[in-house]
Please model this.
Amino acid sequence: MFELTILGTSAAVPYKDRYLAGQVLNVQSELYLIDCGEGTQFRIKDLGIRKSKINHIFISHLHGDHCFGLFGVLTSMAMSGRTDPLSIYSPSGLKDMIETVFQYTYYQSPFTINFNEINTQIVSQILENQYLTVTAFPLYHRIPTIGFLIKEKPFPLNIIPEKIEQYQIPYSAIKAIKNGGDYHNTEGGIIPNSELTLPPYKPRSYAYCSDTAYNETLVPILEGVDMLYHEATFMHDMADHATETGHSTTIQAATIAQVAGVGQLIIGHYSSRYENLNILLDEAKSVFENTVLGIDGNVYSLDLQRII
Amino acid sequence: MFELTILGTSAAVPYKDRYLAGQVLNVQSELYLIDCGEGTQFRIKDLGIRKSKINHIFISHLHGDHCFGLFGVLTSMAMSGRTDPLSIYSPSGLKDMIETVFQYTYYQSPFTINFNEINTQIVSQILENQYLTVTAFPLYHRIPTIGFLIKEKPFPLNIIPEKIEQYQIPYSAIKAIKNGGDYHNTEGGIIPNSELTLPPYKPRSYAYCSDTAYNETLVPILEGVDMLYHEATFMHDMADHATETGHSTTIQAATIAQVAGVGQLIIGHYSSRYENLNILLDEAKSVFENTVLGIDGNVYSLDLQRII
Model:
């Protein structure tokens, strides 16, 4: 499973049914929370997301609309009896801010919070586990801001069941074949791996870019990602205002997607001046056809596909 | 107009359609925000309350479920172009907490915030304006906590129009009569005020008690208030747990209402262990009949009545 649930798509302030920044990425049933605007704990609850499955929280930057929900998420986790440690990744300052708020509100976390302050100037891998790696990279906003690239690790190969029988492959040899090895049989013969296994599954990838001005240095980082969320706060007639405020337009988001050759572009982080989002979608699609609107509560998933 | 809108009735964490602590009292079209749990800015927006009309915010105590919404309310006010000063009344610590959060989130308020740190040990008048007074008084929770008593000032008397004609009362004499004076006519006669005016309107009052353990010292403060919101976090079978955690049961809230002779009791701040609130209502009514459930989004108003 590789599934993105968007909790909120509104920039700065909530607007009608658009909530503040927050997303949950589900990779192999582990949940990763990306940004955490006010109300994130309500959104998680309303959308039936199990907060006990969240062990990593990524915060792009310390503007309130991307982090004011953390206090509530963390205290609610405690109220639900959490004892597992939790890791938070963010630009510097978040740890001090949260610890100060907890002190003034007489709150002591019953679980360990590991704060990871990320260097916002460089591209760096910040997490690796069994299933994936997470890389942080600089974005171009008014304050130190990072984007996140989540990439699945290569999958073990699937052996074709009939081949096990055909070549009498013993159990002890299976692991090596799943990892790409050929099979050396007892007679000294070599059966090439490609004959024994199905074409491998393609590792899936997702990148999150909010908030950021248009910047082509993002292209090599985003090259070929399957799903890109790129903010498109404004229509392109507001390109000057976007640049001034460290945001992007529809056309700019779509241009990044186009040049980086991503699979799909999801736009979001809409200014509250836009009630009808279809005009933003149309503008983005004029540059990059495979664009969809980020919509609060919608789920965007990537299927497993074999490399052919 | 004297109208209370309840934004949230849930204790500690949001539960189904019950949000966190927050209320808006509308007195003569000035809005007073009482407590401000996470999501208050959403509730205000969804309920069509004009946040520009809020000039005073009262925070009972610094547990997160009563104050984590402040960051969002204050920054959203700024995004809406607010320049008018705002006053906040709370136990000590709130100013430092908010200023720290604003510093880490690169936020500078474009309007002045006057923080008033209230002594939580004594009964003290903390606000007086044209229409009302607000008095803070100690509550009995695990941390320094205050309740709020809002009382309308006496209304000017209404002169009976026919009497102005009958006694040929000049315009210059009206103000004195409205303030309770008799009318001295040009022939040296005295027309008593009671003959010239209608019985006066009764000033209305509202008191907010959340969070607090049962404590009879509240009774003289709450004596005769028209509308009392008193937390009833638990059913009475959990009286011991209520005492330990600094909360009240239904029976305890109703007993305070009964002994203080209030007009109406609104209960709230319900534990998330209760889905069906009617059992709490029934228990409270067994002690104080004129009890109603505090329900998220409901409006509770007091009509003007003449003293007879």
Notes: The mean pLDDT of chain A is 97.
